[in-house]
Description:
This protein is α/β, with parallel strands linked by helices. It has 4 domains: 10-104, DNA polymerase beta, N-terminal domain-like (DNA polymerase, domain 1), CATH 1.10.150.110; 108-171, Orthogonal Bundle (DNA polymerase, domain 1), CATH 1.10.150.20; 269-324, no CATH class; 331-568, TIM Barrel (Alpha-Beta Barrel). It contains 24 helices and 14 strands. The protein has helices at residues 10-17, 24-40, 45-60, 70-74, 81-93, 97-104, 108-113, 121-131, 136-144, 156-171, 178-195, 227-231, 266-274, 277-284, 295-301, 322-325, 351-360, 383-400, 423-426, 444-456, 481-491, 511-516, 536-545, 559-568, and strands at 176-177, 200-204, 213-214, 217-222, 236-242, 245-250, 254-260, 336-340, 365-371, 404-412, 431-435, 462-463, 494-498, 521-524. The strands form 3 sheets. A 7-stranded parallel beta sheet has the order 8-9-10-11-12-13-14. α18 (383-400) links the parallel β9 (365-371) and β10 (404-412). α2 (24-40) packs across α6 (97-104) and α17 packs parallel to α18. The protein starts with 9 loop residues before the first helix and ends with a helix. Mean pLDDT is 91; it is low at 1-20.
Amino acid sequence: MDILTEDLTLSYFQKHINPHGMNNKEIARQFSLLASLMELHGENAFKTKSYASAYLIIRKWEHPLEELSAEDIDRIPGIGKSVSAKIQELLSSGTMEVMEGYKAKTPEGIQQLLSVRGLGPKKIRVIWDELNVESPAELLYACEENRLIKLSGFGLKTQEDLKNKIHYFLDSQDRYLYGNIEEELELFKQKLQSALHAHRIEWVGDVATYAPVISSINCLITPELSAEQLLAIAGIELLSSAESVFTIKYEERLEVTVHGCPEDDFVSQFAELTMAAPLFEIMAHGGRLSGDADLPSALAEEGFDNLPIELWDKKNIEDAGPSYWAGLMTVDDIRGILHNHSTYSDGMNSLLDMAEYVRDQGYEYFGICDHSKSAFYANGLSPERVLEQMEEIDQINKKLAPFKVFKGIESDILNDGSLDYEADILERFDLIVASVHSNLRMDEEKAMKRLITAIENPFTHILGHPTGRLLLAREGYPIDHRKVIDACAANGVAIELNANPLRLDVDYTWLDYCMEKEVPVSINPDAHSRAQVDYVKYGVFAARKGGLKKEACLNTRTLHEFQNWLNKK
């Protein structure tokens, strides 16, 4: 058939005229993004509005644009020749040259922020310029540090709303942060249990082993169930099913894979879905997991007595012995809460409120470490305000004794590795956490020189969040972990395992080396509110995955022991 007389079917246009298969909605979204990028960069308001208007027109246009000639597109009310030319460019190449130009000068994380509902280009520009935030996870962390409420046009209500929306955005990607979804997972399990009251329900895989980053959410249910039973539960959408495995969406947020199995296969499937393959092969040998086998007893018989579930997924755990996991620390072992913030800098609660909360949770001591003077974005403390806070701490210690508040600071590590403040101020602190917050793009050589200089400073007690990473957002500082830990060992400096779920830095895979070099690990919540004090548990989960012993953790020491450690420094 002659091409000129062939029916102009949709498939023909997709193949020859619109090889990228862009429909009207997809084309409209491109114009919406272009308008947002232009507004973000402060471009001509008239052009920006014309592309925003094109988005609205194209989104509602019923006839496929790919079936129209350039002249027909020109005649669409509100679509001029400039927009029409860009539509043709999209249909033929799948992109727009002008769009690629704006994307090239806009960090990918900023482009992602444009997808967060309720956060327009103007607000993103303020956040980008004022806080140097360049990704959703960085913005979430800034919200948790209460930095947004200091900006013009933002308030506490806006900040809390954005936190929820960013949580949703991050959790709607391929992976989840355990600390972000723990509460939702528990509520979801309770809902399942209520609806399927005769069934046994357990988390398996990443959730069961407390992985900091959850690649997939899986639960195991016995006895087997049907798709109809799941769909009868409010908030559940069935995405796919295969035999007794169902992938569901809960409340349009969490994607969960539900594995159904007979009761006599529950133990075996629980182990298989949770254990590293070599460990499971050992445990499954000889039918040890069949029927209603007692899993702890089976583990003990194979030489894995009291193996914590956090280590079930650890590679080569079968080569370790019980001495490796004996004496792992627990949440109950934590005696003091170090590295915290108050309203003196960017915290939500007063110093007294924070101290009383920590005391009421049963801890013996509390280290306040508000931001230092260079952290202007976080209302860092001037020397005068440092002395003011120290006077208040003296009064609080009289009131709360024998509970003790230590006079601390989170001192910014400056570009040359020096600490914020002069020596006459630094020497007044009981506790100094030295942390990098700025200029995170140094190469490894410069970054290492900066960190080693700070570690060698005689006033440094703890190296805070060594890489500055934010999980699922940025990799952090390029450092040689071994050299950093060696330097801490040589200078009597502890290293922080920052327990904020977004950080968990130092990574737990380096805890073995910390213990080998006898560098104390301080598990700190970096709390900016009373509620965040409880972040310490996420640090403990990570520490257990790294095999951290109780005695290797700095803040499992009693008040007297911790005071002696400070005095030695």
